[in-house]
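Case study.
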Amino acid sequence: MGYQTPTTKKTLGDPDGDYEQFLYAVSHDLQEPLRMVNSFLKLLDGKAGDKLDEDARKYLDFSIENASRMKGMIYSLVELSRINRSSETESEIDLNEVIQDLLGMFQTNIKSSNAIVNSTELPQVKMIASQAIDLFKILIQNAFDNIGPDPLELSISSKKKKNRVEITLTDNGVGIKPVYLNKVFEMFKRTDAKSQKLGAGLTIAREIIKKCEGTIWIESELGKGTSVIFTLPLV
Amino acid sequence: MSYLKTRILVVEDNLQDFIIFKEVLGQIRDFFIQIVHAESMEMAVEKLAEGTFDIIFLDLFLPDSFGKETFQSLRPLTVAPIVILSGLSDKNIALDIVKQGAQDYIVKGEFDANLLDKTIIYSIERKKYQETLEASERRNRTLIQSVGTAIGEYDYTELHNFLEEKRQEGVTDILKEMDLDMEKAALLRGKLKVMTLNPEALRIYGCSSYEDFEANRLKFYTSHIVDYLSQATLALWNKEKDFAYELPFQNKQGVLIHTLKKWRFLGNQDGFYRLIVSTQDVSQIKAKEEEVYLQSQAMESVAVASSLLLQDGPVEKRILRSFGMVSSAFRASKAAVYLLDILDDDFNFSLDMYWDAEEEPFPGLKNGSIAQWNLLPAVKELQTGRPSLFSKENSSYEIQKLLSFHQLEQVIAAPFVVKGVGNGVVIVGIADNLPLHNYVYSGLMTLAGNIGSAIATSNAQKELKMINEDLELRVDQRTQKMRDAMRELESFSYSVSHDLRAPLRAISGFTEVLNSEYNEKLDDEGKRYLGIIRKGASEMSQLIDDLLAFSRTGRNRLSSEKVEMDKLVNQVVNDLSAQVPDRAIDVQIGKLPSCYGDSNMIRQVVVNFIWNAIKFTSKRDSSIIKISAERKGDFIAYTVEDNGVGFNMAYVDKIFGVFQRLHSQEEFEGTGVGLAIVQRIVTRHGGIVIPFAEENKGAKFTFTLPTNPLLIPELEEIIPDNLIR
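After joint prediction, the assembly is written out as follows.
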């Protein structure tokens, strides 16, 4: 159950149109005043920062922190809205290459946390290249963000099902409480309220998979680890 | 190379963005800069006319111009390099525009002095080598076609003396005394001696020389000459210095020309009474006025026809009635609708209708009319989705034959889409060969689109079941999916708006404390910065509140009760006028029948329309708001009309969008969410909203609400639900 792939023609009362419009409204119309707030907070900081006492400094810092958090949230919404508006076309993607590239990117994290990442041979899929990278980057980043007491062990495997492939990423991280399982895909929902993360990654991941007409779900046991499972169209 | 005195034009409607830009620019000490600010396209055009610039920074979204258009309309006006000022979300557009010739783009809030410095220097450099070429191109483009003014110089001594004699005789009513007719007017005209005529004057009269003009003078007179000369004489009699008259006349070649005549009596100069007459050819202006009038008539008739299409009753009848409504605007004498079978590439017509101005109002469905109206070849050429014109000049022999057979000169064919069913085409036949204005095409496109929707939502679907056995199933699934998506969207927008509020609350709260407790520690500039920050924060929270209100509109369950509209409207008018005590608003309320629906939500609709009318008439000396109603089948169509700034109908599809604003925040306050909410509420009641407006003349919104609670689509779902509980 979800949003349909948007058609090119938007009519009134069309949920896809409204959805896009909502994202556009939030990302565009909020961006302007936010940019203002951000820029002037910085100017104020530079101008008056040293004249303020400790309390006032703290208030200014909190404001700056929250404004940049908001900027991050809105940026995620822009990202989300770009998924369906992308003008790139689908191509044949070798997922093994995608994983190799990403492991290069995560090298520092892997080394510093003694993580082990195992990937079995993955098939070629049909999707937009940049979205394939985004998708796996989000999921790998998630695994690193939720490391448990032991060093991270992440395995990536696949299973062919007719003309689709089911891909599973399993980690040995902190896991998710069953009550949160339904919530994790919702925008800006975090399982830990104190977390600095925005809680947008899985929403964006789901949107990318929806665009490929696939499905995504999560199986998890608290304290033992999490599996993210999703389907993608084969070439 | 020196960049001394670099002149920079910054086109940016947002004052604060401009201030930031200026602040950052101020940090570039290397060169002396002069910054000129324009807040709108109109201002930018003015500034460009006043002087040249070395570089232009351009925001694409201005109050009077949007997106690529902004760049495209500014580009021809200058040779200076243009750098796009882009928001994060317009990056793609900005990139596109760089491909079209902008020198570069920078993202607002993400540039520093260094980057700006480089951007300026590189853009100017890059642009320089093209400059010579572009300058010469520009000169060609801006060659202005001037409207010529014809001047004639006359000696009116004789007429002057004649009038003075009459005055001596004690005549009081000179017009009665003279009692002009065509013959006497010609004589009177003889009393004006032509001294000189300039070439433009000769051109207007269609004469080659002064002698030619004198010889043909009497031919130019039409019956208007009597009134013209009477009024001119009266002006002179009353000792007025100037006299103006709109005079239509026929030139030597028999062409009717509309002119504006301006007389100036200069009195006795150099021994004779001198009169200067300027003649301006206003035929083109007249034609334009005529076109604008026809266009507004056409758009109104399309709007009415579209509302007819959305009423109840058999779809064939509704379509035929809509043709009757627009026929005069389109000068149509025949019209037909064909539905094409989506499964069959061979254009198998499964539903066709036929309308003829000559026959009785509704001839109804004519079977086999395709044979009569055989425009199959025309239909086959319809690949593009836009209306195409088939006239005797531009068509194949086959079509020419068909046109002759139907006594038509030209035919426009507009395709449409019937959602989930297939495609169709509307064909309109016109018996004359006069040129067709753009509004005919656009109006027809709108009508065709609405015909498509009417067919899609009508019982015609049942007839079309033969085409596709599982159509109904698909429609059901689609509706279900729509509902699910709608629900999901609502909860998505609700929770996102909600989540965005948390950090915003923190910003507002902390800056509030800074403002109240540390204000005296800040210098004036610091205070100003804090002020801007707080304004930005409150703007954001207003936007988010509106967004929450919008998503709630879809979430709250509808109730249904009788709504006494006359009471409601009077109450709302009183409440709202009390909020603008210093304005004189003339509110004219007609008879308003009651309807059924959720009284709280309907109140919101009424408040919205009336408040908009009050808001958008604020620049008028006298605001007039008319509220009326008309029964349309099982619905009441309520109309709120104002004489405010209106809007351009080209942007009509934008007005219902969340946050879409056609006027700038500075001009008229508001976040733009209102109409989106109104649209949602009316649609949930099974009604429609029909907007109509003319720029700078006013806006008119008609919305329909049911007279019977059973017509509210959702109640069907709700009733069984209630029974279960």
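Observations recorded in class. Chain B touches chain A through 62 residues (CB under 8 Å). The mean pLDDT of chain B is 75. We will return to this complex in the next lecture.
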